[in-house]
Design a protein that fits this description.
about 180 residues; Tetracycline Repressor, domain 2
Length: about 180
């Protein structure tokens, strides 16, 4: 059910997804959702956001450790570019979707903020290991996360990967220049 919720939240947002939508997409019995998520949609949204953030963050941390920041940013952008294309520009980042929701799901919004913070910390640590001073590494990490998330929104609205393409080029050039200096 969490995977179904994440997929639906990517396309329709939390507010645009009903419990019935999740049940139908997961092909689950109606009572099972309340068994697993007694807090209803609010709990489902929070847990789905936390799960998506952890999965994405884990993959990012692994790539950062083995491939470094530039390669990881390329991979991250490529994954979102593919997500946009494969969904006909209907599907974005589930963490971004949770961050943009209204006041009905504050726990999901909090979980989104925690995911973004963790991603920033992992990117900053990788940049620091590459030789950047921590303050510059943290600033670059925030810039990277904000730029990619913004480019995803632009991509959906403009039905194009142009924003992601441009952000990727600029981020990679900046990361490579910064790490070459240190």
């Amino acid at each position: 059910m969490l995977l179904s919720a994440v997929g639906l939240f990517r396309r329709h947002g939390i507010d645009g997804t009903s419990i019935g939508d999740v049940i139908a997409d997961a092909d689950a019995p109606r009572g099972s959702i309340y068994h697993h998520f007694p807090g209803g949609k609010t709990q489902l949204a929070e847990e789905a956001t936390r799960r998506a953030g952890a999965v994405m963050g884990g993959a990012m941390a692994h790539s950062l450790a083995f491939d470094g920041p530039a390669a990881t940013l390329r991979l991250l952008v490529e994954q979102f570019r593919n997500e946009l294309r494969n969904s006909d520009f209907e599907s974005g980042c589930p963490i971004g979707a949770a961050a943009l929701e209204g006041g009905g799901t504050p726990a999901a919004r909090l979980a989104a903020g925690e995911s973004f913070t963790a991603w920033e910390a992992d990117i900053a640590a990788s940049l620091w290991r590459a030789g950047l001073p921590m303050d510059r590494a943290e600033a670059m990490a925030t810039t990277a996360v904000a730029a990619v998330e913004g480019a995803i929104m632009l991509g959906r609205a403009q039905r194009s990967t142009r924003a992601l393409d441009r952000v990727e080029t600029q981020l990679i050039e900046l990361v490579e220049a910064l790490t070459a200096e240190s």
